[in-house]
Design brief:
Layout (H helix, E strand, L loop, with lengths): L5 E3 L6 H21 L6 H8 L3 H22 L3 H4 L1 H21 L3 H29 L8 H26 L6 H19 L4 E3 L17 H32 L5 H21 L5 H25 L2 H29 L2 H33 L1 H28 L1
Antiparallel strand pairs: 1-2
Helix pairs in contact: 1-5, 1-6, 1-7, 1-8, 3-6, 3-9, 3-13, 5-6, 5-8, 6-7, 7-10, 9-10, 9-11, 9-12, 9-13, 9-14, 10-12, 11-12, 11-14, 13-14
Protein name: MFS transporter
Membrane topology: Multi-pass membrane protein
Keywords: Cell membrane, Membrane, Transmembrane, Transmembrane helix, Transport
Amino acid sequence: MTAHTSETRPVVRDRRARFGFAAVAYAFGVVMLGNTLPTPLYSIYQQRYGFGSLLTTVIYAVYAVGVIAALLLLGKASDVYGRRRLLLAGLAASVASGVLFLTDAGLPALFLGRVLSGVSAGIFTTTATVALLDLAPARLQRRAALVATAVNMLGLGCGPLLAGLLARYTAAPLAWPFVANLALLVPAVLGVLRMPEPVRLVPGARFRPQRPVVAAEARSVFVPAAVAVFAAFAVFGLLTAVEPGFLATVLGMPDRALAGLVVFTMFAGSAAGQVGLARVPTRVALPAGSLVLVLGLAGIAVGLVGRLFVPMLVGTVVIGVGQALSFRSGIAAITAAAPEPTRAGTVASFFVVAYVGISIPVIAVGVAATAYGLRTAGIAFTAVVAFVALAACVAVLRLDRR
């Protein structure tokens, strides 16, 4: 992006700004809800199209392709084109994704729908967050970032919950979740159309895609923080993609409403951790997040080994808290270490690592599940990721000691 292309107006403390804040928060939540709707439905798609765990994980993981592309290509585009335009583009991608899933047109529709869902998430992750900061009322100004995080995580959690309930209690389990999501998107579009534009646009300004870099001053902090967040997002990706499969095939609990509820608890744990533990200092939160993640992984492993529901449920919630600590503290650490000219690129690189963590390890689990079974693959995954999280914890403690 060229220098001095736009500027943010002073936050207007009026009714329109408050309406815009609420509209963006609602749209953010609904878009993220749409991203996780397919989670409890993958088993139905498997039966309908005749594929197994490997292709399930690939369909899930292509979502990260859309997210990373949007983050790198459009991460700062709203500074040039305005928040409203970018949010509308994200909503359009979310609507297109829902329509594709509704067509029931086979694997190509599933793949393209997931990619478009990722594009919508990538746009909203950056643009909606800064729009909330721009439009926050005075009483929420200092907590706007936490509001954005909570809306993000709760939206992601409500997707499996809504889809699981509709799949369980309606006659068209592959249609009603996306019909409901499209209905929820209508007021989101109307609200964003009416929101005030907080960016003063400069005629003739040009935008260049964000290039990921890692500032030299931040590398010593970036590496352990990135490893920790890679582990946290890998577990998030695994449980979002295949935890309903764990419940159905390993524990003998195929209820899709229950599957949606269990995945919801992970995102709820993350939202609660982000908000409730916001005052934990970064130097404590970063290693603590890795240790909490290991405890959650232990719960998942015990649940898989013993075919027990309660340890798996508790482990799922604990993993959400560990992810919250790792992600928040990692962002804070690298933002503090990177100088202003390279800060945005360094944060973009951090997000890329996180979303690579969502995709590649999940596919590896799908390959292992094809060869050795889902239960064995899940147990091996928990052991490997626990080792990675512990390594990140040790690296952070050594860095802190220096």
